[in-house]
Design goal:
Blueprint (H helix, E strand, L loop, with lengths): L2 H22 L7 H23 L8 E2 L3 E2 L3 H4 L1 E2 L11 H9 L24 H11 L4 E5 L2 H12 L5 E5 L4 H9 L3 E5 L9 H15 L5 E5 L11 H10 L4 E4 L11 H4 L3 E5 H4 L7 E5 L4 H4 L29 H16 L3 H16 L5 E2 L9 E5 L4 H7 L5 H9 L2 E2 L8 E5 L5 H17 L13
Helix pairs in contact: 1-2, 4-13, 6-7, 8-9, 14-17
Protein name: O-phospho-L-seryl-tRNA:Cys-tRNA synthase
Cofactor: pyridoxal 5'-phosphate
Family: Belongs to the SepCysS family.
């Protein structure tokens, strides 16, 4: 970690020490001892700020609570990790973590009917309305990750033995959601381009009907899958599902928050998104949005009454287990939302950067793209069996040589030790960083005598 980053963390920690003193004092009363503690901490902050300004000093704080490393991955490196790129917090979200870190901070002003989506201060209720509008659906809830969105829909619609149509590239959490509800997944096969089509979905539905004697109860398909980040015909698939009177769940874990999503135009009955994967939000966070038709079922309220106390909690939503995201997780998501709403309009530029990087990798002799090409997403899967893996076979560090070379240049996030088939993500990187990454990969190749075709990249 460079010293300025180190000292920035130390300054933040020192300010938190001052904050703790202010928390421990009597309201608006500071004792002489507390004043002295504050002055000492302020002087320490001043010294740290001088170090930041002058690029001086030595590390003084290496651990949090004695055993937790300081995470400076984003401050000191270019991170191309495939699942982290669009989850980087905005400065506003990081500030929200500081201000709302206490467990039930969201609930300070909670009033009847005592439900998360009804809280007006902070503006949680308007945020729910904005989320629904953001994906052009009628009603939305925040959930602890996309997986809990899948779970809420599956537990509502799926009974024991029911079939649910998923992609042959479906995420494991879709499987778990169906299994937890007692259902059975039925996978739509891929075509020769590793794509799920509307025709293949129709054929699978017919096959399930013939085998079981009844239709599947849900079709759940990813817009972009997590393995290749290929784009699947969700609009066509939704149309097919509705022709069979089957509701359609749009898995937008890799789209909601990074590119425009119009749930009604797609034909979705349910839209699920991931906050920590694609909405610059703390984990675990996500959204579940639906239509007016399905909202009363998915967001049903409890009807149960205690046999002894006769207590009722009728306002609480069963699938949400009452309230979902509380404290800093929700406020971080809310704080990032204005930026997220704007950045989806920059998707075409993000695609240009993605294709620029992939073209740069393809210029390295022997490298291939496994995902569809040109890229329609910033997440990509590449094949370097005939390039970097040839080096790994002879190198004393084997596949870790590439990680070593990249990290020495400040690039992290590729799967450590992977030189055969692996994934990366360019989302949110500046053009300068994208060019730097391309140059670094090509310089590594040339260092080990792999030819690079250095023709000018037309995508720039």
């Amino acid at each position: 970690m460079d010293i300025r980053t180190q000292k920035t963390f130390e300054a933040l920690f020192a300010l938190e020490d001052i904050r703790e003193t202010l928390r421990q004092r009597l309201p608006n009363i500071t004792s002489p001892e507390e004043e002295n503690t504050i002055k000492e901490s302020v002087n320490r902050v001043r010294k740290i700020l001088d170090d930041i300004e002058n690029y001086t000093g030595t590390p003084e704080v290496r651990k949090i609570a004695d055993n937790i490393d300081i995470r400076s991955r984003e401050e000191t490196n270019i991170n191309i990790q495939p699942i982290q790129a669009a989850g980087r917090l905005t400065p506003e979200a990081r500030k929200a973590l500081i201000a709302y870190g206490d467990g039930y901070s969201t609930c300070d002003a909670c009033r009847k009917p005592f439900r998360l989506d009804k809280i007006s201060s902070p503006p949680v209720a308007p945020f729910h309305e904005q989320l629904a509008s953001f994906v052009n659906m009628d009603v939305a809830r925040v959930v602890p990750g996309a997986r809990r969105g899948f779970q809420a829909v599956a537990s509502t619609l799926v009974n024991k033995g029911d079939s649910v149509i998923v992609s042959a590239l479906a995420h494991y959490t879709e499987f778990l959601a169906v299994e937890g509800a007692g259902g059975i997944v039925r996978e739509v096969p891929l075509n020769e381009h590793n794509l799920v089509t509307a025709d293949a979905t129709a054929e699978k539905i017919e096959a399930v009907k013939q085998e079981t004697g009844k239709s599947p109860v849900l079709v759940m398909i990813d817009h972009f899958d997590y393995q290749y980040a290929n784009e699947h015909d969700v609009k066509g698939i939704a149309k097919v599902a509705h022709q069979y009177d089957i509701p359609f769940l749009y898995n937008g874990a890799y789209t909601v928050g990074v590119r425009p999503v119009d749930g009604k135009s797609i034909g979705a009955d349910f839209v699920v998104g991931s906050g920590h994967k694609s909405m610059a939000s703390p984990a675990p966070s996500g959204i579940l949005a639906t239509t007016e038709e399905w909202a009363p079922k998915i967001f049903r309220t409890t009807q149960m009454t205690g046999d002894l106390t006769k207590r009722k909690f009728g306002v609480k939503e069963v699938e949400m287990l009452g309230c979902t995201l509380m404290g800093s997780t929700l406020l971080g998501m809310m704080a990032s939302f204005p930026t997220v709403k704007e950045r989806v309009n920059n998707w075409e530029n993000e695609l240009k950067k993605s294709n620029y990087l992939i073209d740069g990798l393809l210029a390295i002799e022997g490298s291939k793209i496994v995902s569809e090409y040109p890229r329609k997403h910033t997440l990509s899967k590449v094949d370097t069996i005939k390039s970097f893996d040839l080096i790994a076979q002879e190198h004393k560090r084997r596949g870790f040589f590439l990680s070593d070379e990249l990290s020495s240049k400040g690039i992290v996030g590729e799967f450590a030790g992977a030189t055969r088939v692996w994934k990366l993500n360019t989302y949110g990187l500046s053009w300068d960083k994208v060019r730097y990454v391309v140059d670094t990969f090509q310089e590594i190749a040339e260092k080990y005598n792999i030819h690079v075709n250095r023709e000018e990249n037309s995508n720039d």
